[in-house]
Amino acid sequence: MIPEIGHFALILSFCFSIALGVLPMLGVYQKNTLLIWLAGPLVAAQLVFIAISFALLTWSFAVDDFSVIYVASNSNRALPMVYKVTAVWGAHEGSLLLWVLILSGWAFAVGYFSRNLPNDIRAMVLSIMGLVSVGFQLFLLYSSNPFLRFLPDFPLDGNDLNPLLQDFGLIVHPPMLYAGYVGFSVAFSFAIAALLSGRLDASWARWSRPWTNIAWVFLTLGITLGSWWAYYELGWGGWWFWDPVENASLMPWLVGTALLHSLAVTEKRGAFKSWTVLLAISAFSLSLLGTFLVRSGVLTSVHAFAVDPERGMFILVFLAVVIGTSLIIYAVRAPTVKSYAVFELFSRETLLLLNNVLLIVATMTVLLGTFYPLIYEATTGGKISVGPPYFNLIFAPLILLVLPLMTLVPQIFWKRSPTTDLIKKNIIPLLCSFILCAGLWISSDLEATNELNIQIILAVLFATWLFIALIKDLVGKLVSYKKAHQGSVFDGIRSLTLGYYGMLLAHAGIAICVIGVAVVSVYSVDKDLRLAPGDLVEMGGYQFEFKGLSQTKQANYTALTANIEVTNEAGERWIMKPEKRTYPVRQSQMTEAAIDAGFFRDLYLALGEPLTKGAWSVRIQVKPLVRWLWLGGLLMAFGGFIATLDRRYRAKKVTASGVGI
Amino acid sequence: MNAVHKKRLIIVIVGVAVFSAAAALVLYALNENINLFYSPTQVAEGEAPVNKRIRVGGMVAEGSVEREPDSLKIQFTVTDYENSLIVHYDRVLPDLFREGQGIVATGKLDDKGRFQASEVLAKHDENYMPPEVSDMLKKQGANASEAAPKL
Predict the structure, then answer these.
(1) Testing the interface with B: which of A229, A340, A360, A385 to mutate, by most B Cβ within 10 A?
(2) Most buried one in A74, A197, A350, A652, CB count within 10 A?
(3) 8 Å CB contact between A632 and A511
(4) How many alpha carbons lie under 13 Å from residue B67 in its C-beta half-sphere?
(5) For an interface test with B, which of A229, A275, A300, A374 has the most B Cβ atoms less than 10 Å from its Cβ?
(6) What's the CATH number for B36-147?
(7) pTM for the whole structure
(8) How far apart are CA B64 and CA A261, in angstroms?
């Protein structure tokens, strides 16, 4: 009975979404205030019923209702309760339901927090979000219904959750990523509403910015968590594979980053308006494309679910409708949007434009690399894969160009800027980073296996330059405040906006992330070894001794644990315990790596398979600064969050002239 | 030419230059880094290039996995049920690797016709078959009269 109620709630929510997609929009065009007002209640109703539906599916998991096909294929009596609940989004149908839930949540939040928006704009934005939601719910009901039953003979026990997904990373990673993907639907809806209404002005950019920021924050967190999860759970120590599904999340992130900066120009200077709108449309389209990639199974990917052409077809059609419609609206309406701002060649505007171009080029190369196997197969019939070297070769130089731009943009002015000043400002930071890099290079001993190339050196150099310049900028601002106002340092700190601090943190995050990537790619030590009990190996300044194995039995798996004693150069000893787990229900094996995490290095041990004479294959890795990757990611997300709290986004009611007070 | 036009011209030129440089780099990188997929039959017929990075795939033949006793070296046979190919590998195999499972390996064919793999992929969803392998087996099923195993 419960699953049927869930199914029914989903249908009701679908009906409310249709009403939301049609009625308020109609109201705007007919100037019917009642229909416009309906947007609020409809958004609430949509959220309530989709939440009921989601809760009931969760309930079916919690009480082991294996008559539901989806529960039977993804849960098991022995599964711990926390994983039963998170198994809801462990496979296709449930994760789609989560997607719709998050979308409805975003729509509700827009409705709630944007009460100071003009009523018709708000109604339009909500209507467009309603239409997006209609598409996804249709998909759920048509080809991915999680409430379908096995009747009359249902299995007594379920097929268990994929062991890889029985993990903290899965609990948080997909919801974050989805919140990011779906969050760009807000920017998208704002853009379409602005095109339709013809009101594409600074206040539009100001409404749009915090939502774009938050969506970007979630996507950043999602990608960071995904990379971290891959690192400790499935990657054997890799943190990025240029896998189609990872690329699918990176592309909207890159375009979203371009969008953030372009929106800033539109808000502050009234320039780049139609470009900004195009970016908003692209960011969301790429999010949809990401879903298509994960769900359709057209590309070989570690993440791919079992192939289902019907679903792939549906998303492809949906994608075509969304992108097609929005581009037509863009083509028809964008020429009416004019940017009047003038700026010199050497100005913040130009550099931001250049940064935008670079980010878009990066996105296109990733897009091309991701879809090239499909293009190749369609044109020649051959099957290929595009290897990580392609992406590294293209992506690294582009990022190397972005870094100096990031350093310079905050230092120069809108409209125009003198160049002499700029040189003076950067001599000290550049010199410092030179000395630092040279010092590091001399003091480090490189393993012969990894080559140190010019890109890596430049990356570290630029990243440290960026970091030092950021600190210098902050200190400079505080000093000049003190000179001008005679206030305390504390007053100076308070005088700067949250938007500024957000920028500092996010850019520092990039610098830290780049340093982490560069160092870990060059200085990592990685070996597969054959170890028998009593064997001793030395690697990267550590000594590893294989002490032996022990076996334990847990609720839904048995674990073989190796005890490996590690000794560092100072003679300290500790034990690391990599595991091999066997899950009887799926007859599957899982490697649970042992990680000794540290700020400056990680030790990573993973157990391979048993060999002869009690020996095991073991992968041992020493990975310096690998944590900096995710630390940088977190810092970026935190910076984006801080920037969103800036006072100017908490705008008062907009006046008739359309300017926020 | 007035100042505005001159400025626009510079922006356009820079833009075009950046884009074409990127395009050239991209095409070069793509050409260097695509890995073509070959079935064991294609390899047996000599279609696959020697000493070039390629991918091969198929089912791991039952009873074909052999290990060297004192190192990580391992060899196994991948088959498309018409022809088979011996794959050599010396790293840790993925958890889902086992006999009778579909795999894809990346590596190089040496001049003796052995495949030296640098990476072996088996998927983390056991219902999931690498698309290359399932397509290949479907094709085989259509060509060959004897029934290929059910996928």
Answers:
(1) A385
(2) A74
(3) yes
(4) 16
(5) A300
(6) 2.40.50.140
(7) 0.90
(8) 57
What residues of chain A lie within 8 A of the CB of B57, using their CB?
none
CB contact under 8 A, A387 and B33: yes
Among A643, A335, A351, which residue's Cα sits nearest to residue A507?
A643
Percentage, residues of chain A above pLDDT 90: 43
pLDDT band at B121 (very low <50, low <70, confident <90, very high): confident
A positions 510-529 inside 8 Å of B (CB): 528-529
Tell me the C-alpha distance between A277 and A192, whole Å.
8
A31 touches chain B (CB under 8 A): no
Token pair, residue B122, equals 């088996």
Q: What is the pLDDT of residue B149?
A: 39
B3-34: pLDDT as tens digits: 777 777 887 888 788 778 878 878 888 887 88
What the block records as the tokens of A93 is: 């149908």
* Cβ–Cβ gap A361/B22 under 8 Å: yes
Report domain extents, chain B: 3-33, 36-147
Pairing outcome for strands A536-539 and A558-567 = unpaired
pLDDT at A323: 92
Report DSSP state, residue A305.
Answer: P
Residue A659 has pLDDT above 50, yes or no: no
A300 touching B (Cβ < 8 Å): yes
**Which residues in A lie closer than 8 A to residue B32 (C-beta atoms)?**
389-390, 393
Contact at CB, B128 and A306, closer than 8 angstroms: yes
Per-residue DSSP letter, A656: T
Which residues of chain B does A588 touch, with a Cβ-Cβ cutoff of 8 Å?
A: 95-96, 126
The partner residue sitting opposite A611, judged by closest CB among B26, B29, B67, is: B67
Strands of A336-401, DSSP E: 384-386
Query: Residue A85 is which amino acid?
Result: V
Q: How many interface pairs between A and B have CB atoms less than 8 angstroms apart? A: 125
Rounded to whole angstroms, how far apart are CA atoms A392 and A374?
20
Q: Pick from A511, A563, A265, A291: which is nearest to A402 by CA?
A: A511
- pLDDT digit string, tens, across residues A262-320: 999 988 888 888 899 999 999 999 998 877 777 666 665 444 444 566 777 787 888 89
- How close B84 gets to chain A, by Cα (Å)? 19
- The alpha-helical segments, DSSP class H, found in chain B are 3-33, 40-44, 131-143
Instruction: Show the CA angle centred on residue A562, arms to residues A237 and B74, nearest 5°.
Output: 65
State which H helix or E strand residue A531 sits in.
Answer: strand A525-531
Return mean pLDDT, chain B.
79
Residue A118 predicted with pLDDT over 60: yes
pLDDT tens digits, A344-385: 777 888 889 889 989 998 999 899 988 888 888 788 877 888
What's residue B76's pLDDT? 92
Alpha carbons A579 and A595: distance in angstroms, whole number: 11
